[in-house]
Amino acid sequence: MTDDVKARIEALRTELHKHNYNYYVLSQPVISDYDFDQKLRELQDLENAHPEFFDPNSPTQRVGSDVSKEFSQVKHKYPMLSLGNTYSKGEVQDFLLRAQKFINEDIEIVCELKFDGTSISLTYKDGKLVQAVTRGDGEKGDDVTANVRTIRSIPLTLPAGDYPEEFEIRGEILMPWSVFEQLNKEREEQEEPLFANPRNAASGTLKLQNSQEVAKRRLDAYLYFVLGENIGGDTHYEMLQKAKSWGFKVSDAVRVAKSVDEVMEYINYWDTERKNLPVATDGVVLKVNSLRQQRELGYTAKSPRWAIAYKFKAERECTRLREVTYQVGRTGKITPVANLDPVQLAGTVVKRASLHNADIISELDLRLDDMVYVEKGGEIIPKIVGVDKDARKENLLPVGFIDKCPECGTPLVRLEGEAAHYCPNEDGCPPQMKGKIAHFVSRKAMDINIGEEGIDLLFDNKLIGDVADLYTIDLNMLSRLPGWGVKSAMKLKESVEKSKEVPFDRVLFALGIRYVGESAAQKIAKAFKSIDAIKAASLEQLQEIDEIGESIAGSIKYYFSKEKNNALIERLRDYGVQMELNTEDATVVGDKLAGLNIIVTGSFATPQRRSELEQMVGDNGGKLQSSVNAKTSFIVAGEKPGSSKIKKANELGTKIISEDEFLAMIEQ
Ligand code: IVH
Description:
24 helices, Helix Hairpins, binds 2-(butylsulfanyl)adenosine, 20 strands, D-amino Acid Aminotransferase, Chain A, domain 1, 6 domains, 38% helix, CATH 2.40.50.140, alpha+beta
């Protein structure tokens, strides 16, 4: 029986790995998403029922885990060097000639794209991914294996092939443009800071503590360098082709050039063609093909002498500045925007560019009607990088900065140490009022079914003026708005009703008290349990909570000092919004587990129960671990605990306790 199960598990794993490869590496799926999900579910069910067959490289592990752990540092077996950079084709030519002269025989050059992400080194043993480490300082990096396992184009196990028993393969982890744009859109909705470019987004994602979150971000990877002892092959190109045959994603843009002209052709081609790629690139990398010649050329302290990177120039155009307008953000932040004569740049027509703040305007010494240089580098928002002063006409008006809010006329303020101007009229300035509503309804807050356009429409038609108005909205009026019908009105009403069940910690977050983000709201709600207790708390009492400092505490006191806010809370309470923590949601907050490293394993009464227990570890000051080691204090085991964990615990003599024993520990 168990043998059958084992065989079925293995067959499913092999099949699903293959489908992942077809989909994510070859972009040629052969089964439907539905069939894939069915098979994955079957495998997951079998694995749940038979934890003794757990495998970290199973396709089910691609979804990550919500166990957070700090990364351990790993020393690279071979240092991760960087490449010499150049922006000039002349220098590329010099590099090629120098290498040729040094070698004193014909050389071939492998031309590759320079992917603009974050580099990674993967180690495979017996065809299985065993470790993934970031570049770090080149000598040692972070072990991000759990996160990398969620990247579908990285094979977890290799089908049979001529790969060495142990090897490293290096490459670049990337966030595709489409994912990046979607992510930033979501972050904007949540009022979270935006990522400037896909590179930052990829490296930020790889460093997330929760691999389930990483899995959602849909990273991709290209591999470009195989290392190890006796890896076979005489040329770099051959190694790349081998890597491809082993199941790795190697770019199809790799070419072997036999002359300087061919290298230049490659550079010129990709300088424009790269705009059609789904991922960011910032240049090309040129590598001597022969591995013997590479060894002869050797390394400097920082980089190989057998490779160089040619970086593409950021695209830049010159156009006329027509007008500077000012946008008021949801937080009251004022952003100056340059309105330009339309100009074609990096594949799109640019009409507007951000000028960021008053300091940048004065540094540029801008005048209306100036000819300005607009650049679009790795960033997607174009920026003005300079002025063509030779083309400046006489008597042009300097661009100043406004002193009143363009939306509500309130005098602007500039806080000490901040570059931006703000409109302080948070309760009466329309974009800020709409912003508060947008935050309140957002997914992580009250999760009410209305988008930004809907809010604009309801607000502009005076159906809502603040968040409490959502609860008394007139269905008749609503269904008569342009673009709205009875159905969409009902849907909104339903989700408003449902929001009355949203637990208090999320309500507290939804109120939009400055600096009170999701995690601060959770901590404060857990510590004080009700809005009344928070309101009554002193500055000092608020600051006693872990991670709550002066600015958050001060901001909370300020919020409750305003009568308007208190009245709003009372209205929300009357409408049925949760203003205290439900006892079932409440967990003990304390430090009973401080200094202890704890593992939760096996299944409990419900799948959520395990997450709750894990949450309790953190809430009580303990640290969650994912694998047993000498530092493990104890294991909380449910039904069918992970057999490898139990085996290791028995070897080390680690204590294993039940859920009840655990609860007793924190409830004492
Ligand atoms: S080869 C010893 N090939 O560029 C040379 N690097 O400064 C190893 N990169 O850290 C790197 N695309 O993150 C190589 N096709 C490519 C690349 C590439 C992007 C990145 C990589 C490296 C940096 C070099």
